[in-house]
Structures are given as structure tokens and as C-alpha cells.
């Protein structure tokens, strides 16, 4: 769906995220759920609550000692997806990433996810 907003602005919606002049703005919970759907993306977003920037290889080693598969999924899937939604700025060559303007719109939800993940009680078998 695309709608014209004057002579030079356009608005399109995809997975609950609106794009206005190549800038992404979350417009409802569907967009944030889409971005938070995967554990590795949630880890990156929670990491960015306390850090302005990071590196894919460092994050992969924090998630698990077996970094190769995690690093590949971060570099080829999760970080580019967050960058496509203007949540992070991402340099594919170095693996470096930093918070972008869109992160502030997602911050309250990521903070809630962090609180809930820290307070969850593990199931004992």
C-alpha cells in the first residue's frame, strides 16, 4: 500500500513499519514484534540499551562460545534487518554497528523485554 503525502513524501507500510522519505518509524506493535521476534535480534537490542555501538563477532562470542554460526546469522540476517529498519547503523565489512535514530522509538519495548527476561524463573526439570 502506498499513499502520497504531498509532492515529495510517500508513505508505505510493511509489517507494521512505515517508511517516510526512506526513514523508518514504528507505527504499531506489529512492527516491534517483528523486530523482536528472534532471540539474537533481542540480544543485540538489549546490548544496545547499555552500549552505543558493538561488533558482530564480539556479540556472537557473548551469546555462545561457538561463534561461527551465530556470527553468520548476525552478519547475514539480524544486523542487516535492524539496519533496514533504521534501528542500527551497520557496516557489513567490519561487522560494526551503532544505535540509529529508530532505536529510541523501540527503546521502551526493549527495556520491558530486558526486565521480563531477567525476572523470568527457569523451569526446573
Protein architecture, described:
Strand 1 and strand 2 form a beta hairpin. The longest helix has 19 residues, at 101-119. It contains 5 helices and 7 strands, in the order E-E-E-E-H-H-E-H-H-E-E-H. Residues 1-24 have low confidence and may be disordered. The protein has one domain (2-110): Orthogonal Bundle (Arc Repressor Mutant, subunit A), CATH 1.10.10. Helix 2 (39-50) packs across helix 5 (101-119) and helix 3 packs across helix 4. With 125 residues, it is of the alpha+beta class. The chain is globular.
Furnish the topology, listing elements before pairings:
Elements: E1 2-5, E2 9-14, E3 17-20, E4 23-26, H1 29-36, H2 39-50, E5 53-55, H3 56-63, H4 67-84, E6 88-91, E7 96-99, H5 101-119
Antiparallel strand pairs: 1-2, 2-3, 3-4, 5-7, 6-7
Helix pairs in contact: 2-5, 3-4
- Computed structural class: alpha+beta
Highest-level CATH class: Mainly Alpha
From the spread of the alpha carbons, the general shape counts as: globular
Share in helix:
40-55%
What's the overall average pLDDT, rounded?
A: 78
Topology order in helix (H) and strand (E) letters: EEEEHHEHHEEH
Short description:
It is built from five helices and seven strands, in the order ββββααβααββα.
What descriptors fit this protein?
5 helices, 125 residues, alpha+beta, 23% strand, globular, Arc Repressor Mutant, subunit A
